[in-house]
Design goal:
The chain is α/β, with parallel strands linked by helices and about 110 residues long. About 35% of the residues lie in helices and about 25% in strands. The chain has a single domain (about 5-105), classed as 3-Layer(aba) Sandwich (Glutaredoxin), CATH 3.40.30. It has helices at about 10-15, 30-45, 65-70, 95-105, and strands spanning about 5, 20-25, 55-60, 75-80, 85-90. The longest helix has 16 residues, at about 30-45.
């Protein structure tokens, strides 16, 4: 089963530059709502394998990426297409909300 890709300050540009749509989960170990969204992100990594890139950024370990995109509250999901942000979701939401946003980029 596919796992989300761990994004770091070093590999971020390479990952979001993917030809496939990319969903990035900005999270932290101490964040309660992040723990609720985590399993959903894991599931989606398997379901979207080959269709989209599902990735995670630990904001504590990668402050540059978080600062670049103005991440102020977590969890925040950013959706990229061709390296550009096309959508954003702040806070813990049901899986269908994230799936709809990602599906819109795949179509």
């Amino acid at each position: 089963m596919s796992k989300p890709i761990e994004i770091t300050d070093a590999n971020f540009e390479e990952i979001i530059g993917s030809k496939k749509p990319v969903m990035v989960d900005f999270w932290a170990e101490w964040c309660g709502p992040c723990k609720m969204v985590g399993p959903v992100v894991e599931e989606m990594a398997g379901e979207y394998d080959g269709k989209a890139v599902i990735a995670k950024v630990d904001v504590d370990s990668n402050p540059n990426v978080s600062a670049k995109f103005g991440i102020r509250s977590i969890p925040t999901m950013l959706f990229f297409k061709n390296g550009e942000i096309v959508d954003r979701q702040v806070g813990a939401v049901p899986k269908n909300v994230l799936s709809q946003k990602l599906d819109a980029q795949i179509a």
